[in-house]
Amino acid sequence: MQYKVFGCKVNKYYTDRWLNSEYLSDKTGTFVASCVVTDSAKRKWVRFVKKELESTSKNGKIYISWCGAFKDGKAQDDFFEIYPDLAYAKEKIEVLDEAPIEDTPKKSLREDEQQEVNNKASTKSPKPRIDLSKLKAAQKTQIYTKKFILIQWGCDSFCTFCLTVQKRGRHYYRAAEDIIDEIKNFESEGWKEVVLTGVNLSAWWLENTHDIQNFSQDLVKNWISWWWSRFAELLRELLDNTSIPRIRISSLGPEFIDDAVIKILWEERIYPHFHFSVQSGSTNTLKSMARHYDGEYMKRLLWKIRNIKREDGVEISIGADLIVWFPGESEQDFMDTYNLVKDYKITKLHAFPFSAHTMWESVPAGKFKNQVSENIKKDRMNRLMELWEQVRETFKSSQKWKVLKVLIEKSDNTWWSGWSENYIECDNNNIEIIAGIPKKNNIVVWKYI
Ligand code: SF4
To answer: Which CATH architecture has domain 110-388?
Structure first.
């Protein structure tokens, strides 16, 4: 089965699942993981599907899953009403659920929830646990050198620019032992890196991602985080119960990152690249986005991250998702975002132009007044990208002649490539190998030249 992944790491995790599923095992055609993060993201996969339809064989079909295909995690019955552009090919398109039925992961239940389930035993039962032996048997396709491990799903935060939250359903998370089993399964096959992923993964173990409402901003502001995030505990358990050399963490909700989490990020097996879904540096803009933190909180968090002193002495790289042109964004609001990138050396940047989501499905902020005018939009995105390129080049130059490690992800007889632990892309041309053989899935020690 051919496949095309649009969007985030959660999509990569599920594409791996669907491609190894019993349901698709005897089917032909193309699997498409769709994304609705912006209007242009929607246009991209709709265009791809139309093109694929032209060449799909008589018995083949296009299997569409993920955010463009479902609501609250379930395949949308009104898919062709929402995407009338594809209605002409109803016979050749199949809309799929979030996950193949055989491996929908288990939701971890706390005592009170388990009691509730027991009380309602007749009406509702916990989700089936992932059957790893079945997965192992079914694992035909290994798409990536690293493995995306889903630890959390869904979200309850309803940020005003976000369509994803309408699609993915409510927040829940996976039991630690379930996650550990899947990592041990993967490392037992000799693989070297896992990527923890989710929609709001640092909210692991929380009742819902809105929990932060119960805390006064003063508590947050004063760095007192005495118990709420158990994301740190999960990381500790993964470090203690697995031996996988590299644990990478994908996009983090800043509001759930407390001192306990920051302390764990010093450890050598935690991949020293930390990406935050920041969205803006401006308190005004964050407020109208309905985010759970303000500009001051973000500065303090990035200051702490930037000052992490790693056990292995590696200088960390910081990544951020940022939205530019959010309705009402003043020049000062923009500069607050711009200065975050400059002052805290954001070395990996996903800068999204605000999308009013006028195509097919919409978001609250799409109807906000004071949308930013076209001429300002272009100027701001150019300035931000220019700054980011400078920051990135300065960071890469600062790593010159440093001894680092790289996981070889692609290789053939003459060429190979991979990523350093602090997210610098490298290949034969820019590094000198000190130790190790540059073969796929090998970690080699190198000097960046
Ligand atoms: S935290 Fe906000 S942006 Fe992220 S998934 Fe939830 S609602 Fe969307």
So the answer is: Alpha-Beta Horseshoe (3.80)
